[in-house]
């Protein structure tokens, strides 16, 4: 290792060596360590290059490499502020396309949040229905709606859903036409039962009369003694 020098260093460098370049930069500058074969060469810069972020310390300001894939500039190791060309930035990460529910607005490469949309309050839940019917089933669906009051750049496709659907359960409830039909069928059945009962009673009365006729006694006259 070569001897450290404080004279003859590059501009902005307070301490350097022949083998490793700058070892300490002036207070306002950042030191960047570049690998050259097996050596690390230190250089002093007023700001960090692409792919690095500046970390200020009382000892020495350093340029730290971004750890996020496809990141061009970052705020910290794990938070990107600009992605490489053609990629979208979303919450400090780089994506080929914006995640589901997000989209790039105003021609930028940053995915905007649906939270930027101004939505109305949810309306009340509608009646429980199934295939547009309100009766004759046990489980169905009910929905509620809300309105988009304001959308970023007028693009409503960036806003969240305006309709919400959930499953619902209703007590056993027959349709009115089903009740009428059942009542008519019950009436027909009752009439049939009454007709059968009347017929049975008629037959029973006839049978009783016949039995009574067969069981009737004929009065006999005693024979008078022969003269």
UniProtKB/TrEMBL annotation:
Basic and acidic residues bias (residue ranges): 183-204
Domain R-spondin Fu-CRD: 11-111
Cell compartment(s), UniProt: Nucleus; Secreted
GO MF entry, a single one: heparin binding
Alphabetized InterPro entries for the sequence: Furin_repeat (IPR006212), Growth_fac_rcpt_cys_sf (IPR009030), R-spondin (IPR051514), Rspo_Fu-CRD_dom (IPR043601), TSP1_rpt (IPR000884), TSP1_rpt_sf (IPR036383), TSP1_spondin_dom (IPR044004)
GO process annotations (BP): positive regulation of canonical Wnt signaling pathway; regulation of macromolecule metabolic process; Wnt signaling pathway
Keyword terms of this UniProt record: Disulfide bond, Glycoprotein, Heparin-binding, Nucleus, Repeat, Secreted, Sensory transduction, Signal, Wnt signaling pathway
Transmembrane intervals: none
Spondin-like TSP1 domain span: 117-172
Residue spans of biased composition, Polar residues class: 218-227
Keyword check for Cytoplasm: no
Summary of the function given for this chain in its UniProt record: Activator of the canonical Wnt signaling pathway by acting as a ligand for LGR4-6 receptors. Upon binding to LGR4-6 (LGR4, LGR5 or LGR6), LGR4-6 associate with phosphorylated LRP6 and frizzled receptors that are activated by extracellular Wnt receptors, triggering the canonical Wnt signaling pathway to increase expression of target genes. Also regulates the canonical Wnt/beta-catenin-dependent pathway and non-canonical Wnt signaling by acting as an inhibitor of ZNRF3, an important regulator of the Wnt signaling pathway. Acts as a ligand for frizzled FZD8 and LRP6.
Family statement drawn from the similarity comment of this UniProt entry: Belongs to the R-spondin family.
PANTHER family linked: NEUROHYPOPHYSIAL HORMONES, N-TERMINAL DOMAIN CONTAINING PROTEIN, R-SPONDIN-1
Name under which the protein is recorded: R-spondin-1
Organism per entry: Rhodinocichla rosea
Chain's gene name: Rspo1
């Amino acid at each position: 290792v070569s001897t450290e020098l404080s004279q003859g260093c590059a501009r902005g460098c307070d301490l350097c060596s022949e083998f490793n370049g700058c070892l300490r930069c002036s207070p306002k500058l950042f030191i960047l360590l570049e690998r050259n074969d097996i050596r690390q060469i230190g250089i002093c810069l007023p700001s960090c290059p692409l792919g690095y972020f500046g970390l200020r310390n009382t000892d020495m300001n350093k340029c730290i490499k971004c750890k996020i894939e496809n990141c061009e500039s970052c705020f910290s190791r794990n938070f990107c502020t600009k992605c490489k060309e053609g990629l979208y930035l979303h919450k400090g990460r780089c994506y080929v396309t914006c995640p589901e529910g997000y989209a790039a607005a105003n021609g930028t490469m940053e995915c905007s949040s649906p939270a930027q949309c101004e939505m109305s309050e949810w309306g009340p839940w509608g009646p429980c229905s199934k295939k547009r019917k309100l009766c004759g089933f046990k489980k169905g669906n009910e929905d509620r709606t809300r309105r988009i009051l304001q959308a970023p750049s007028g693009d409503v496709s960036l806003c969240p859903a305006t309709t919400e659907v959930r499953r619902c359960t209703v007590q056993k409830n027959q349709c009115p036409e089903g009740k009428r039909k059942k009542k008519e069928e019950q009436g027909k059945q009752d009439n049939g039962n009454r007709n059968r009962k009347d017929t049975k009673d008629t037959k029973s009365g006839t049978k009783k009369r016949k039995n009574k006729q067969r069981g009737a006694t004929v009065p006999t006259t005693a024979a008078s003694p022969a003269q």
